[in-house]
Amino acid sequence: MRKKVVKIAPCVYQVGGGRLSDAEDCLVYLVEAPGSSCLIDTGAGGSVAQIMDNMAYSGLNLDYIKTIIVTHGHIDHIGGLEAFKDILGAKVIAHRLELPAIEEGRPELTAAAWYGVKYRGVKVDRVICGDETVMIGDLALHCVHTPGHTPGSIAVYVDIDKQRILFGQDIHGPFTKEWGSDKVQWKKSMEKLLALNADILCEGHFGIYSPAGAVSEYIQGYLHRFSR
Q1: Do 201 and 208 contact (CB within 8 A), yes or no?
Q2: If residue 50 lies in a helix (H) or strand (E), which one and from where to where?
Q3: Orientation of helix 212-226 relative to helix 183-194, angle to 10°
Q4: 1 in a domain, yes or no?
Q5: Per residue of the chain (228 residues), what is the pLDDT tens digit?
Q6: 149: domain range?
Q7: Which ranges of 63-200 does DSSP label H, i.e. alpha helix?
Q8: Among 39, 30, 37, 27, which Cα is nearest to 12's?
Q9: CA–CA gap between residue 146 and residue 60 (Å, rounded)
């Protein structure tokens, strides 16, 4: 049976990861606006064709995808970046502190060896230095710097039909000194996300949470776990 995407909210879909593509992939999301769409992360690289097929089979217009936002430089999020960029002609957006992973492909930062993946650096077209807004058609995607898991991790949120949808990849960690993880910064980042009062959380590996109470509970749960 062919796999389809999961509709999360108007204009918001899960297109990869979970049961939609390889188990090594992070959850890959798409935000669609008239004439313009954005991928959020790309998976580990082995499922690019599957994710493309998922979107095409579900009626999403691949020609609209001209932006890819990278939440951080781990291989399960950037392994498919080169292929998606080439196929779609999309522009890549990421935080400047993730450039050593994304552009240089430094193996201690990408964790590519964990997955047995070879990664070649990919040029980032728009470098974010703090909190910035990316326009996708008439939708404003707010990129929020959330250091902790990695120095240049970002979360993304968008307001659609009176709902705030938060893409909070890898809220759960893990943390290692090799990647530049910092639990003190991470705690502040999680408090920043809680203050957004999101109605829906699209997490990096562990699914989608709603309503707002469930979003808060999920984030608070990890704050409690890593504060002990």
Answers
A1: yes
A2: helix 48-57
A3: 160
A4: no
A5: 456 899 999 999 999 999 999 999 999 999 999 899 999 999 999 999 999 999 999 999 999 999 999 999 999 999 999 999 999 999 999 999 999 999 999 999 998 877 778 899 999 999 999 999 999 999 999 999 999 999 999 999 999 999 999 999 889 888 999 889 999 999 999 999 999 999 999 999 999 999 999 999 999 999 998 876
A6: 6-226
A7: 75-78, 81-88, 99-102, 107-110, 112-115, 183-194
A8: 30
A9: 30
Assigned token pair, 177: 């000194």
Peptide bond into 10 cis (omega under 30): no
Residue with structure tokens 């991470």? 186
CATH of the domain at 167: 3.60.15.10
How many domains is the chain built from? 1
Per the domain annotation, does 217 fall within a domain? yes
Q: Dihedral of the CA atoms 200, 190, 153, 12 (nearest 10)?
A: 0
